[in-house]
Amino acid sequence: MTFANQHLAQEPSRAEVDTLPGHTVIEFGTPWCPHCLGAQPLIEAALSPRADIRHIKVEDGPGKPLGRSYRIKLWPTLVVLKDGQEVARVVRPIDAAAIAAALAPLGAAL
Question: SS3 for 79?
């Protein structure tokens, strides 16, 4: 479980996400969004050393059910889950501290 470089070809259903065990970060965005592209080094730096966190990169947009179920409005949005339940989120992170704060509820790396 490490940083995901590419968006999933098929997004998981909300029911699948809700039953994921352990720690997960769902990144909502698009491959062409300038905010998403700018945040990639921050997201990679935060998630790469965390082998205990599953990273799911979902291409979001109008009519995409997973993003709508989380009420995503801006990209990128990172939704932090513990055993399928949201514990934090960060919208348009501009520094590593914002991502670290969102990951804090998951505790230290295992």
Answer: strand
